[in-house]
Amino acid sequence: MRLLGNLLRSFVRRGTLKILDASGVEHEFGDGSDVARVTLRLHNRAVARRLFFNPELVAAEAYMDGTLTCEDGSTIHDLLFLFSINRAALGAHPVQGSLRRIWRARRRRQQQNSVERAKHQAQHHYDLSEDLYRLFLDEGMNYSCAFFHSPDDSLEDAQKAKLARIVRKLAIEPGMTVCEIGGGWGSLAIELARAGADVVSLNVSPDQMAVAQQRVDAAGVTANVRFVLQDYREFSGQFDRVVSVGMMEHVGIGHFDEYFGQVRDLLVPDGLALVHSVGRKSQPGTTGPFIRKYIFPGGYVPALSEVFEVTERLGLWVADMEVLRLHYYHTIRHWRERFAANRDAARTLYDERFCRMWEFYLSAVELGFLNGSNMVFQLMISRERDAVPVVRDYMFDRPDITD
Predict the structure, then answer these.
(1) 94 with 42, same domain?
(2) Which tens digits make up the pLDDT trace of 32-76?
(3) H or E element: which one contains 199?
(4) Are residues 39 and 140 in the same domain?
(5) Which one has a higher pLDDT value, 302 or 98?
(6) Per-residue buried b or exposed e for 151-163, using 16+ beta carbons within 10 Å of the residue's own CB
(7) DSSP readout, 222-247?
(8) What CA dihedral angle connects 351, 355, 357 and 358, to 10 degrees?
(9) How many domains does the chain have?
(10) 389 burial class (0-12, 13-18, 19+ CB within 10 angstroms)?
């Protein structure tokens, strides 16, 4: 515990962390306050050593394997909350600072998302059982940030509000053509079709696309939606509108020019595009080791400076930008609570280790939006200066669309 204790004394500055080591000896760190109070047990000495060198990955793996357990009523969410309010101090430790410099140097290699590799990595996450996602998503199967007019909104209402807002932003008129990059389970395609658009939806997950097709058929808009099993770089055409929700996070820093170049090339000269992505308010960084290894291999949450550098280079107008801050926190909070309520069903689908992995994932990303630097941005992009209306009022002059 000597090395780990040295790290924790400099890291845990708010709240209280008690650790029972493999010999049963209790160690306490922090200021003794109740802002966060967590008790952990380490079941072997090796875990303590490994935690010192890579705590973000090893804590997750030890929890998944059962060699780190939460005691005295503590939960993994409590531990990650404690981590989230002390995170800045962790990077200041010399060993952890060196580790982050190594991650930064290797980030382009980690995000080398060729067409075939991108397909494989997307399928790693999105070809999990449909039944798993139904345990915690809303009835529309929306796996992206909702829009909460109030924190008390239901998840279903907030997701419907998100879809309506996107349709409004795109100023959809009957007969327009829309290309959707990353179609998910079909909810946005259905809403675009209901507004009168003809939609081509790109997806690289066969399982996800099959469910989306079933949902489109059930909604009665089959004639207006065509799904294409292709990476965005494999497809060509021109459309009045392009929309991409929750896809840019999977592109990788070395492929932003390809991505925004394709958005540009898919638009007719006076067309407009909406890009909705998780971002960071901090400077460019890296993807955390747990998320990179187990959840979204090849993924990266960009800083706005990295995004604007590309749009400037490609000569695109960023006609509007909206930053959604706590909306994803509220969204993922609902997901985490629903997953917890349906944990037994998830364990039946997979196993205990998988459930622990998803508990860790959902808590970590939720708290990244509450206490970290993560947010969501929506960009309106066009090739021409006035393709996007010059004031946002147009979004609310559509009596045919309601939240």
Answers:
(1) yes
(2) 999 999 999 999 999 999 998 888 899 999 999 999 999 999 999
(3) strand 198-203
(4) no
(5) 302
(6) eebebebbbbbbb
(7) GGGEEEEES-GGG----EEEEEEES-
(8) 140
(9) 2
(10) middle
State both tokens at 122: 């997307």
Indicate the residue type of 187: S
Count Cβ atoms below 10 Å from residue 45 Cβ, excluding itself. Answer: 12
Q: Residue 10 belongs to what domain range?
A: 2-109
> Does the CA dihedral 256-259-261-264 come out positive or negative?
negative
For residue 364, which of 68, 147, 48, 79 has the smallest C-alpha distance?
A: 79
CA distance 335 to 326: 14
- Tokens standing for 288? 């955390």
Quick one: pLDDT band at residue 403, thresholds 50, 70, 90? very low
Domain presence at residue 98: yes
Q: What are phi and psi of 284, to 5 degrees?
A: -50, 145
332: tokens are: 């993922």
Q: Are 171 and 27 in a shared domain?
A: no
Instruction: Please indicate, yes or no, if residue 402 is contained in any of the structural domains.
Output: no
Q: Tell me the HSE value of 38 on the side-chain side, using a 13 A CA sphere.
A: 22
Alpha helices in 278-390, H assignment, sequence order? 289-290, 304-314, 327-341, 343-349, 352-370
**Token output for 20:** 């029972």
Rounded CA separation 3/7 (Å): 7
Whether residue 95 is found in the same domain as residue 130: no
Among 83, 109, 135, identify where a domain stops.
109
* Residue range 251-271, pLDDT digits in tens: 988 899 999 999 999 999 999
The answer to whether the beta carbons of residues 365 and 79 sit under 8 Å apart is: no
Name the residue with tokens 């139904």. Answer: 134
Segment 340-365 mean pLDDT: 97
Select from 79, 94, 109 the last residue of a domain: 109
DSSP line for 39-55: EEEE-SHHHHHHHHH-H
pLDDT for the residue numbered 394: 87
Tens of pLDDT, residue by residue over 220-262, are 999 999 999 999 999 999 999 999 999 999 998 889 999 999 9
pTM, 2 dp: 0.92
